[in-house]
Design goal:
Layout (H helix, E strand, L loop, with lengths): L9 E11 L6 H12 L4 E9 L8 E5 L6 H17 L5 E4 L9 H4 L8 E6 L7 H12 L5 H32 L3 E4 L2 H7 L8 E3 L20 E4 L8 H11 L8 E4 L5 H11 L5 E5 L3 H8 L4 E4 L8 H8 L4 E4 L4 H4 L6 E4 L4 H13 L1 H18 L2 H17 L1
Parallel strand pairs: 1-2, 1-4, 2-3, 4-5, 5-6, 6-7, 8-9, 8-11, 9-10, 11-12, 12-13
Amino acid sequence: MRVSTIMNKNILLAPAGPSLNPSKYGKEYYFLQHICAECSHSQFEAYFKKTLGIPDVPNLSANQFGDNISRNKYYMKSYAKAWDRLNTGDIDIYHQLDCHYRLINPLLIANQINETPTIIGPAEPPHTIPDPSKKDFIRQASGIQWSDASLDKMLPAMDWIRKNVYNKGREILFKKTLENADRVVVVNEETADIYAQFISRSKIETIPYGVVCEGFNRATPKDSVDMLAMGSLYKRKGYDVLIEAWSEIASEFPDSTLHILGNGPLREYLDQRIAELDIEDSVKFHGFVDRETVVEMLSSVRAFVHPSRSEGFPHVRLEAMASACPVIATNVTGASEMIRHGTDGLVVPTGEYGPLAAAMAELLSDPEKAQTMGENALRHAKNEFDWNDISEKFIEIYEEELER
């Protein structure tokens, strides 16, 4: 660990995130834990919607607005607090840690940051919303149970309005937000290309989120014949595709079980489809499970399967890699930067059950290949996604901006 040159500085992070929490992925938690430790002679002040755990570092002031406020109100309160603190004149770096595609920062739009170095990110790419999810949203928002046929006629017009009216307005303000920041950090190179449509590519840095590899048990994939998937049971997550794929190979591998962790509105449909395909004996739903169960199951399967149609930054794939578990995953934004196809796992087309089934069959048929991929995945996680290295990259950005 190198010695930071950032001494006696005040760094403000607002908004810093909806939740400061060491469990689940703990992105904000581990970022602050590492960067505060490396910049031990500076003070960090961060604002969250809620705090469920605070890193044990003396130079961090972690504040919460309360879980009872809406997400939009949390952002507004964060910007108001940032405005107050920036006006005192004692903030040396302003870092908007919590950022996603088309998020608008009114302080940057109005150019009210003055001369304080400003960093945004790590920012994630936009989500792709499947048509079934759009239909569900329209039904919920309108209170009318429109038929699929009616919604199929409505969606093209609504997509046009969303793209050319609603999103265009947001993108103008989003562009202004990015333009008035000094540096924009994104999670992968594919996302950098997306953000480069709004600002100069030279202003964009690519730094992924990290993973705490020592928090996971080491898997031995060759010793298992089971597969694991986890996440909320929504259409965007692709479980319908996964079940169709599993039906293609269940009879070929009768001793294998597909374990699914998570709850969600798609459960009823999945149960029905599993019954129709007559694969009830080889699919097991576990519902919501605690962290210890996640860690245990990642270390006890042949491969982790992640069939999602869209992701911002699929941290769960990193957790599988940190467990030395090979990953079979769809080619969402940044997938191949995280998972090297044929080395750490297999990357398949999004929304197609045939290639997904073929990938699962490939690893079920070859335990040694699965074992090697898992070992490669763990090395890759340690080499490219270690929080110590990631925090140092942010410190370098802080140092460069302070020297300007």
